[in-house]
Write a structure and sequence with these properties.
Layout: E1 2-3, H1 24-40, H2 45-56, E2 58-59, H3 62-69, H4 91-100, E3 105-110, E4 116-124, H5 127-141, E5 149-150, E6 156-161, H6 163-169, H7 175-182, H8 186-200, E7 201-203, E8 209-213, H9 216-228, E9 239-242, E10 247-249, E11 256-258, E12 263-267, H10 273-279, H11 285-297, H12 312-318, H13 321-324
Parallel strand pairs: 1-2
Antiparallel strand pairs: 3-4, 4-6, 5-6, 7-8, 8-12, 9-12, 10-11
Length: 327
């Protein structure tokens, strides 16, 4: 039996569950979520304590159970978000929604007596993408950033537990549910698009940008958001790439894949690449580099090896107001 009574339950202590899969903090978080669930079901403090001990094999004190029920203390670094309505619209959250609409995942598993487990995660080949995802999800939840870990396939994996984000991110994406967070401001729109294009976007050697997805309505929504920022697409609606029920062979991997659903795409008009670069951009360096190479070929960016040019006015603007008059 593991005891998590005492000061450690406020989230300040750290440690590992001896012989177990979770750190002590993760175990406290699981116990905290279960306490909230059991309280909503109408159980008394004594019943909650007994049920937590039965399901998780941990013992919490009555005073700590009371603190958790009233959310005075929390293992979530002092920040507990119990419902979608309590989430704040931020650029970080908008970016995460964009990634979840693409490569990222939200899953729920039933672990029997341990209850349901809600996992938010990302598995990608670009380390900078995994780092960005981890940093932003930590800021949204008020937790320490999870460390991206490489798997046997050479991809970087980020995983974190959050019931409220699962409810927001679960697929198919509920567009009406995400709208208040995505369309809160122009910067939130831009960060949603960055997350989505980081996940689903491709930039070819010519500089053409394309995104693929099986969700037709989601791509329509993406086109609507692009238009809000003055970014045009090559068509008014998503185009079909591959019909469901067909197979194709990946020439790079030599593997054959089967599409169960229709596969759609949209493409950015090349004249809008500069607007996309200025408003949205990429986190992933290889995609960002190809877009910049296109813009340099068009004279829209200075050569990569050209040092920045400073004028006297740049110097004046950089100085305090009372110092500028002395130049």
């Amino acid at each position: 039996m593991v005891s998590i009574v005492g000061p450690a339950v406020d989230g300040k202590g750290e440690g590992a569950k001896e012989g177990g899969r979770y750190t002590l903090r993760e175990l406290r978080m699981e116990a905290f979520d279960l306490v909230q669930q059991l309280h909503e079901e109408g159980l008394s403090y004594t019943q909650i304590i007994d049920e937590v001990e039965r399901r998780l094999g941990v013992k919490i004190g009555k005073s700590n159970c009371s603190y958790w029920v009233r959310r005075i203390h929390s293992p979530y670094n002092g920040i507990y978000i119990g419902s979608i309505e309590l989430l704040q619209p931020t650029e970080d959250l908008a970016y995460l929604i964009g990634t979840e609409a693409g490569d990222a995942y939200a899953t729920k598993t039933d672990e029997g007596t341990r209850g349901e487990k809600y996992i938010i995660g990302l598995k990608v080949k670009d380390k900078e993408f995994a780092d960005e995802y981890a940093t932003r999800i930590a800021r949204v939840l008020g937790r320490d950033a999870p460390e991206p870990k490489p798997n046997k396939d050479g991809r970087w994996v980020v995983r974190i537990r959050s019931k409220v984000l699962y409810q927001l991110f679960k697929k198919p994406i509920d567009i009406d549910r995400i709208r208040p967070f995505v369309e809160y401001s122009e910067r939130c729109v831009a960060m949603f698009l960055r997350g989505f294009f980081d996940s689903e976007g491709c930039v070819d050697k010519r500089g053409a940008m394309t995104v693929y997805n099986t969700d037709y309505q989601l791509l329509l929504y993406v086109m609507y958001l692009l238009k809000k920022l003055g970014i045009e697409t090559t068509s008014d609606t998503p185009k079909i790439k591959t019909r469901g029920g067909t197979s194709f062979k990946d020439p790079k991997k030599g593997k054959t894949y089967h599409h169960n659903k229709d596969y759609y795409y949209l493409r950015i008009r090349m004249p809008s690449n500069e607007t996309f670069y200025n408003w949205v951009g990429f986190t992933i360096e290889r995609k960002k580099r190809r877009l910049e190479e296109y813009l340099r070929r068009r004279g829209r960016l200075p050569p990569a090896n050209q040092p920045p040019i400073f004028s006297p006015m740049h110097i004046v603007k950089a100085l305090p107001a009372n110092a500028a008059g002395g130049i």
